[in-house]
Amino acid sequence: MESYITLRTGVEARxxxxxxxxxxxxxxxxxxxxxxxxxxxxxxxxRHYDARHNVPAWILVDGRERQSDDGEPSRTSGMPTLEVLRxxxxxxxxxxxxxYFGGTLLGPGGxxxxxxxxxQAAVADARDAGLLVExxxxxxxxxxxxYARYEQVLRLAQxxxxxxxxxxxxxxxxxxxxxxxxxxxxxxxxxxxLMAGQDIAxxxxxxxxxF
Length: 211
What we know:
The chain has 211 residues and is an alpha+beta fold. It has helices at residues 34-47, 78-87, 107-128, 150-159, 184-194; strands spanning 3-7, 12-19, 22-30, 53-59, 65-67, 93-100, 132-145, 163-169, 173-180, 202-203, 207-210.
C-alpha cells in the first residue's frame, strides 16, 4: 500500500440519521492504534452515557480492525459501520455510532440502514469540511552539502520530486528532503556523481506522511 486516506488528528466529524424517533449519531476520529481507539470509544460512551447503544468500529493501517454491536442484534450495527469505513478507503480511524432509542423496533434491515446512513453522513461531513487527508509512503533523505553546491543540489532534488522539509545553515547546508517511496533512488545516483563520487546522503526509514 503506497497511500491511504485518514482523518486529520485532533478533529471529529459527525453525522446523524433519524428513523421513527430513534436517533443515530456517528462520531468519527483519527486513531493511531488500538489504545487510542479504545480511548475514543470510552470518551463517546461517557459523553452519551444515557444512550441505549454506543456501537464502535475501527480500522488501522496495519490491517487490524474491530467492531461490536454493543447489544444490538448480531451484524446489524457494528459490521455496517465498519463496511462504510472500508468502502471509503479510510485507515487509522474509529467511528462510534450512538443510538437513542425512539420506542419503535426497526428490525434488522432498518438497523443496518440506519447505522450505515449515520456513518456515511459522518464521512461526508469529514470530506465536506476538508478533514480527510491522504497519507503517502515516503522516505526522508538528509543531505549535507557545501554552500557552493547548495543551489545545484536543491534544484536536483526538486527536479526529482522532493519536498524540502527543512534547510539548516551551519558550516555546511543540510537539506532535509522527503521523497515518495522509490523516487529517492533516481535522485541519489546523480547526487553522488555531482559530488565527485562521495556518498553524502543519509536515507531514513519509510513512513507514512502527508505529501
